[in-house]
Amino acid sequence: MAALLRRGLFLALPHLTGQGSSSVCHPAVSAILLGAARTKKTWPVTFSQEEMKKRLTPMQYHVTQERGTESAFTGEFTDHKEDGTYMCVVCGAPLFSSKAKFDSGSGWPSFFDLVKQDSIEVSDDFSYGMHRVETTCGKCGAHLGHLFDDGPKPTGKRYCINSASLAFQSKDAEGASGSTSTGATADSTISEGRTEL
Prior knowledge:
By secondary structure, this protein is of the alpha+beta class. The protein contains 6 helices and 9 strands. The strands form 2 sheets. A 6-stranded antiparallel β-sheet has the order 3-4-8-7-6-5. Strand 5 (120-125) and strand 6 form a beta hairpin.
């Protein structure tokens, strides 16, 4: 019932605000109205919206900050096979090892385990009339993708993650400068964050 009420409000919102039927509601507003809900209000690492818009590509910003989704089979890391660590593109936090990556056939990078249990936060997502489990970075709250219970052993989990929310540090570069496939360094990305008190 609550989902139907939210959906009705979402459909009526453009008319109530005088935008007409042809306009589209802002993605962040639509995600909230349709049932995606993060309960954590503060994160250990934060960035201003202005800074993120300068540093991230439009797709990275859309996925991580507006809970968007890239099209299946289009992401940079969908078929990526190199050894190393997948990190949050926003704050540089390590999320997944390449050893936990597998081909799920879904069109998005999929992992069966995390680098550390607190690497990500999970929350219920009731958007689009269905229940899913949203995954966000445990340090900065960036939207990553969703978690499903249809993965391989030993965990049975499938972390279905947008490539646009990830940066990659090759195993060879881990001991060196820390450069990532996005052109930024993990160290400089993390140092740009601020801690809110």
